[in-house]
Amino acid sequence: MDLPQPKKPRIRGAFFVAGNLINSGHHNKKDPGLPMSNPESESEFTVPPKKLSDEDQAKVDRYLKSGHNDVERKPFRPFLLLGVILVVLTLLSLLSLFIARTKGVV
């Protein structure tokens, strides 16, 4: 006995972003899609109310400016990183050639 398969919902011209359905602007006379969303009018794009009092925010700002959580770091050297990547890639390539030759593949 064959049971009928449930139909999949058909949504054209729309996609989900962070759980919200957004219209991609696809408009067709036969299938107009969903109405365009207006981000200025939606409450999800408004600035949330403050969670800290002014006094607590001042404490947080003072702590962040104190430098207690700053870490001295060496400057980033992109050419050293590139060199290390090239050396590792070359060594792995040579290793794979060695293995292929010892097994008779090459």
What does this structure look like?
It is a single chain. The chain is mostly helical. Among the domains are: 9-46, no CATH class; 78-106. Helices cover 35% and strands 8% of the residues. The protein has 2 helices and 2 strands, in the order ββαα. The chain has helices at 54-65, 78-102, and strands spanning 14-17, 20-23. The protein has a two-stranded antiparallel ribbon. A hairpin with a 2-residue loop joins strand 1 (14-17) and strand 2. The chain is flat. The model has no long low-confidence stretch (mean pLDDT 75).
User: Which secondary-structure class do the elements indicate?
Assistant: mainly alpha
How would you sum up the major sheet?
2 strands, antiparallel
* Mean pLDDT across all amino acids: 75
Rg measurement, Å: 29 Å
Helix content: 25-40%
SSE arrangement, N to C: EEHH
Provide a brief overview of the structure.
The protein has 106 residues and is mainly alpha-helical.
Offer a few descriptive terms:
single chain, 106 residues, mainly alpha, two-stranded antiparallel sheet, 2 strands, 35% helix
